[in-house]
Design goal:
Strand content of chain A: 25-35%
Order of helices and strands of chain A: EEEHEHEHHHEHEHEEHEHEEHEH
Largest interface: A-B, 41 and 30 residues
Shape of chain A: elongated
Number of strands of chain B: 0
Largest sheet of chain B: none
Number of domains of chain B: 1
Radius of gyration of chain B: 19 Å
Shape of chain B: globular
Largest sheet of chain A: 6 strands, mixed
Helix content of chain A: 25-40%
Order of helices and strands of chain B: HHHHHHHHHHH
CATH topology of the largest domain in chain A: Rossmann fold
CATH class of the largest domain in chain A: Alpha Beta
CATH architecture of the largest domain in chain A: 3-Layer(aba) Sandwich
Number of strands of chain A: 13
Number of helices of chain B: 11
Structural class of chain A: alpha/beta
Radius of gyration of chain A: 24 Å
Number of domains of chain A: 2
Distance between the termini of chain A: 40 Å
Structural class of chain B: mainly alpha
Oligomer: heterodimer
């Protein structure tokens, strides 16, 4: 759905994005992770045609954003919540966008209801809370009934209720067959939401994997306790699996519990304990974006 | 056409036009009161005096250049330019829509300024015991005010696209009108081609150049169109070749 190929963006001497390549599959939720200043916003803005790349390209469904026949019907974007004219009402803000994109004005009230802002539709945006403005951004993104949602740090400044609303909303959008590409540095959010994660650091790709692969990668060893631990360790090593005896009868094995359990069963070795030391996306993220020690 | 409709909607869904309209009306009340009040009744009956009175409607062109610039710079100031370019990603198309909408808006504004000038002049003339004589000679500045406002609106859109910073653009416009035009007057005959002088010549609507520092109306219109083309051309190039600003990382 999204292809980023050898994308580079330089601002005078600073390089925000450096030969970045990745793809976002259709019909899934993909998190776009990186520390502040990693180049996430720049990448998204290049994708949306707001920033001109120095090299490379970013496309949606095979086309640059500006080449899309009906951009708002293909991509819904949620950028900064501060991009509003304070004197314009919420409804008029959406009417302007709908008019520019040739979308029927009836959609305006529909999306306002969808984001639960119907009651505030005729209030000026200067009086909206941050959470309300964020919902209005989502409403604007939904105007064209797009198949792809691109969100840049959508949870920024939202209260817990707003975050829960957003999470549920994005889940239901994805369940309906939509594709979501969401940037964030709030890892807990992404780990609860995303199927895949693209991690960048200093403008470069660090990893692109499923969230479960990443957490597995960050996981510690699986703890195995058996009365025949030494025999099990030998069998595991024969199968090419690394492990160590940590205490009497206890092994720390670098493999998923399912694999260890299967091997033990084949060998008829009883297990008294088989526990995965689950890692977190946060651990994977910190590991992948760690600065090298001087 | 969608982008044009959206630009008109943008212009009419904030208080921008209301405040500019009220400001223009207040200014017209002030200058017409001073102008008509300072002439004796005999002088007021002169067609040339009436023509110069009606030429005050040309103040609309100053408001027009500000409105034209704000149609672009207000979007950058509030960040709404991001959503505008998401909806209309071909930048030249969006700016062309702004130019077209700006022309419509300042046309209406100038027509209202004409009407206000006519009504206020009629009230003052009656109060001074004189009457207006409406004819092609005295009414020509009303058409000139509309033409000058359209040209000024176009220049404003181009200048706004070129500078893109709201305060900076307004400061440049005001400095030029208050100081730049005065300084350039010292340059002699070539001052006729300065933007303010050109707009003034369109408002004055003289068929032939009657003074050394002012063009006749049609040459002034042509020079005004050249200014619109230059400012809009440079503005479009500047916008097309630059990143849309963001407050993110």
């Amino acid at each position: 759905m999204i292809e980023v190929e050898h994308l580079t963006k330089r601002y005078r001497r600073a390089t925000a994005v450096d030969d970045l390549s990745f793809s976002v599959p259709r019909g899934r939720i993909t998190g776009f992770l990186g520390p502040n200043g990693a180049g996430k916003t720049t990448t998204l803005r290049v994708l949306l045609g707001l920033v001109l790349p120095t090299n490379g390209r970013a496309t949606v469904a095979g086309h640059r954003y500006r080449e899309l026949h009906a951009p708002l019907r293909t991509v819904g974007a949620v950028l900064e919540a501060s991009n509003y004219h304070p004197a314009r009402t919420g409804r008029n803000h959406l009417r302007v966008l709908a008019s520019a994109a040739g979308i029927a004005s009836a959609r305006v009230d529909h999306v306002l209801a969808q984001v639960e802002l119907s009651d505030a539709a005729n209030r000026r945006l200067g009086g909206y809370s941050l959470g309300m403005r964020q919902r209005l951004s989502v409403a604007a993104a939904l105007l064209g009934e797009p198949e792809l949602l691109v969100l840049d740090e959508p949870a920024n400044g939202l209260d817990p209720e707003g975050i829960r609303w957003l999470r549920n909303f994005l889940r239901s959008f994805a369940e309906g067959g939509g594709t979501v590409f969401v940037s964030s540095h709030v890892l807990a959010e992404v780990s609860q939401l995303a199927d895949e994660a693209v991690i960048i650091h200093r403008g470069k790709l660090v990893a692109q994997q499923t969230v479960s692969e990443l957490t597995l990668q960050a996981a510690g060893a699986t703890r195995v306790r058996s009365p025949r631990a030494e025999e099990l360790l030998a069998r595991l090593r024969e199968a090419g699996i690394e492990g160590d005896a940590t205490e009497s009868g206890v092994l720390a094995v670098h493999a998923p519990p399912e694999r260890i359990g299967d091997l033990a069963a084949e060998a008829g070795i009883p297990l008294h304990e088989l526990v995965a030391d689950t890692g977190s996306l946060e651990e994977a993220f910190l590991e992948l974006t760690a600065e090298p020690q001087a | 056409m969608n982008a044009f409709r959206a630009e008109l909607l943008k212009a009419t869904t904030t208080r921008l036009l209301l405040w500019f309209g009220l400001g223009l009306l207040a200014f017209l009340v002030l200058v017409l009161s001073i102008h008509i009040g300072s002439h004796d009744p005999g002088s007021l009956r002169e067609p040339s005096t009436q023509r110069s009175t009606f030429a005050f409607a040309g103040i609309a062109s100053i408001v027009a250049v500000l409105i034209g610039s704000l149609l672009v710079t207000a979007e950058y100031a509030h960040g709404t330019i991001n959503q505008s370019f998401l909806a209309v990603p071909v930048r030249g198309r969006l700016l062309a829509a702004k130019l077209a909408a700006g022309i419509v808006v300042v046309f209406v504004l100038a027509a209202l300024a004409d009407l206000a000038t006519l009504v206020l002049s009629e009230l003052w003339y009656r109060g001074r015991g004189a009457s207006l004589h409406l004819g092609s000679y005295t009414l020509a500045p009303f058409l000139g005010a509309v033409g000058a406002s359209i040209l000024a609106g176009g220049i404003g859109v181009g200048l706004g696209a070129l500078i893109r910073r709201q305060t900076g653009t307004i400061v440049v416009i005001l400095l030029w009108l208050l100081i730049g035009e005065g300084v350039i007057s010292a340059a002699g005959d070539s001052a006729r081609f300065a933007p303010g002088h050109v707009l003034g010549a369109v408002v004055a609507a003289h068929r032939i150049s009657n003074a050394g520092d002012m063009l006749a109306v049609w040459p002034a219109v042509v020079v005004g169109l050249v200014y619109v083309a230059i400012f809009c051309g440079l503005g479009f190039l500047a916008v097309a070749g630059s990143d849309v600003p963001s407050r993110g990382d």
